[in-house]
Write a structure and sequence with these properties.
It contains 8 helices and 15 strands. It is an alpha/beta fold. It has 2 domains: 2-119 and 269-299, Quinone Oxidoreductase, Chain A, domain 1, CATH 3.90.180.10; 124-243, NAD(P)-binding Rossmann-like Domain (Rossmann fold, 3-Layer(aba) Sandwich). Strands 3, 5, 6, 7, 14 and 15 form a 6-stranded mixed β-sheet that branches. It has a 6-stranded parallel β-sheet with strand order 10-9-8-11-12-13, with helices on both faces. The structure holds NADP nicotinamide-adenine-dinucleotide phosphate.
Length: 301
């Protein structure tokens, strides 16, 4: 089968579409014929060698953590899913014609494969973040970097939990944030004043998707470091705030909730652009500019 892989750290040019052996579903896993695989910042960060000290890669490394497609192999001990069903979920080596998933949910019939392929990572991340922050109905949450994949999803899950969301994005993306149910504001200096004007009653929790020294400012805004979580700033715990690097234990529950919210019209994901497998390098280069709205997705015929 064809897969997108690299054999050395480097820029987008190290990515190659190559013939590799097909994977097979082990116990507790399923294999899908991939129709769409999401692109995440972690893809180009790993390729660049950003995590090489803490998490060295085995080469050749096939990229991707998520996909949607049609089940064509079922591993031992798996129930509740049949050959030929459309699912979306998390796995490894997913930017390929076939991929093994370790957690998944049924794809609603009317959910496009491109959207389903881009949802798993951001759904897992957004729900984990809101759980760690303990976001409850009636609370107000501030999300920085709200127009990207994780932010777009976190807004909608927080809204479904009954919270009010203030999100930061550049001005042209404010209508997009409003459509998702958030109150938009710009980023940059003066954030605390802008947030205070939008939420005079105060902000209960903050989710940082940007880093760059924002954690201290967010702690001042929230007034309680234990209710500030950064997904990007490793130093957050030094300030008493939270940092979360690892997946939740049962992501399939969050994926099933995402499917339900989609069917109720309460969750969507904007796919900014789709690319064929052969253009994964272009997709990762665009993601690395860090201005994607929603997600980028690789479409597999
Ligand atoms: N720790 C974990 O488990 C975990 C899991 C998933 C993701 N992450 C990390 O979380 C971050 C967000 O992921 P993602 O997938 O949502 O990324 P993404 O989709 O690439 O985010 C792009 C968005 O970031 C916004 N942005 C860029 N600079 C900004 C700034 N200074 N202030 C506010 N918004 C800004 C852009 O909006 P504008 O165009 O308006 O600037 C754009 O819409 C990434 O760094 C990713 O690696 C961590």
């Amino acid at each position: 089968m064809k897969a997108v892989q690299f054999s050395e750290y480097g820029g987008p040019e190290v990515l190659k579409v190559e013939e590799v052996d097909e994977p097979h579903a082990g116990p507790g896993q399923v294999r899908i014929a991939v129709r769409a695989a999401g692109v995440n910042p972690a893809d180009w960060k790993r390729r660049d060698g950003f995590f090489r000290e803490i998490m060295p890669l085995d080469f050749p490394y096939v990229v991707g953590f998520e996909a949607a497609g049609v089940v064509d192999e079922i591993g031992e001990g798996v129930s509740g899913v049949s050959i030929g069903e459309a699912i979306f979920g998390l796995g490894a080596r997913t930017t390929a014609e076939y991929a093994v998933l370790t957690s998944w949910a049924h794809k609603p019939d009317d959910m496009p494969f491109e959207m389903a392929g881009g949802l798993p990572v951001v759904v897992e991340t957004a729900t984990r973040s809101l759980d760690l922050l303990g976001v409850k109905s009636g609370e107000t949450v501030l999300v920085t970097g709200a127009a990207g994949g994780v932010g777009s999803t976190a807004i909608q899950f927080a809204r479904s939990r009954g919270a009010t969301v203030i999100g930061t994005a550049s001005e042209p993306k404010h209508d997009y944030l409003r459509e998702l149910g958030a109150i938009p504001t710009t980023y940059g200096s003066g954030l605390a004043d802008r947030v205070k004007a939008l939420a005079p009653q105060g902000v209960d929790a903050a989710l940082d998707l940007i880093g760059s020294g924002l954690v201290s400012e967010l702690i001042d805004i929230v007034g309680n470091p234990a209710r500030v979580l950064s997904l990007v700033d490793f130093s957050a715990p030094e300030h008493g705030a939270l940092f979360s690097p690892t997946q939740q234990e049962h992501p399939e529950r969050a994926l099933a909730e995402a499917a339900r919210l989609y069917s109720e019209g309460a969750l969507r994901l904007q796919v900014e652009k789709t690319f064929p497998l052969a253009q994964t390098a272009e997709a990762q280069a665009l993601s690395a500019e860090e201005h994607v709205t929603g997600k980028l997705v690789i479409s597999v015929p």
